[in-house]
Amino acid sequence: MKHGRYPFIIGFLIVPVAIYATFVVAAYVQAFQLSFTNWRGFSPDVSYIGFDNFVKLFHDNTFWQAIRHNLFLLLFLPLLSIAIALFFSFLLNMGGGTKGGRTHGVRGSGFYKVVYFFPQLLALALVAVIFARVYSPDESGLINGLLHQIGAGPVLFLADERLAMWSILAVLVWQAVGFYVVLFSAGMGSIPAEIYEAAALDGATRGTLFFRVTLPLLWNTMQVAWVYLGIAAFDAFALVNIMSVDRGGPDGATTVIGLEIVRNAFDYAQFGYASAMGVVLFFLTITFAALTLRVTRRESIEL
């Protein structure tokens, strides 16, 4: 059995690995190759121009504007999503207090978990369409319709340069929180009840339980959540493309790297330049994930 294990494993892996290598790895490799060319996407003629595309990127104000917006999302999307998800998860699992030496969640916590998870069932493009209507500046918009009823507004959520990026961030957080509520709830459920019982018998408050017991034992789960949300912050193309005014507006106030890649490739037929942007985005994402895992690394806590 020992000698037949590896052929068995290889037999299962060879097809999916071959598919992944063909359609994912090969595409990445080709993007790296195209980033050193001036290929326009509609001709077999390709001229290698070295690092000219990357030099052009360095002086491209629109590209730097897009990077700033991605970094804005990178800072606030994980921070807000994790904080809100932790708050709801703690309420659903331990917010009901201690009874008989055991902690329990608020009444109806199982139902609330299902409700919080609903946004994950919707395609991101559909979420963008829904919230584009919610933010509509006329009375047909949910928020401005309510404001009109009390004689206020309208608020130009997506047309105001000061509000547009915050409005898109709010949608990203709304869409992400439900998944991490379920994820953190599963992590809290795996913590032995005896730990909470011992802390409760020692007189620990719910705040003490959260900061001294729950957070340290959920650290690895939070680390993974931070990486996933950071990757989502770099990949905000769909929401920005659908919700923003004039695709990245007003006046570039919401543009992101993914949108600039699509714009340069398919609107301006500069596939080589767009590939250079993709290469930069690739290294930004990999660097963020590696640094996050390195900086947040802690010794495992044995239960």
TrEMBL record:
It is found in: Cell membrane. This is N-acetylglucosamine transport system permease protein. Keywords: Cell membrane, Membrane, Transmembrane, Transmembrane helix, Transport. It is a multi-pass membrane protein. One of its GO terms (cellular component) is plasma membrane. PANTHER family: ABC TRANSPORTER PERMEASE PROTEIN (PTHR30193), DIACETYLCHITOBIOSE UPTAKE SYSTEM PERMEASE PROTEIN NGCF (PTHR30193:SF41). GO terms for biological process: transmembrane transport. Residues 67-292 form the ABC transmembrane type-1 domain. It comes from Actinoplanes digitatis.
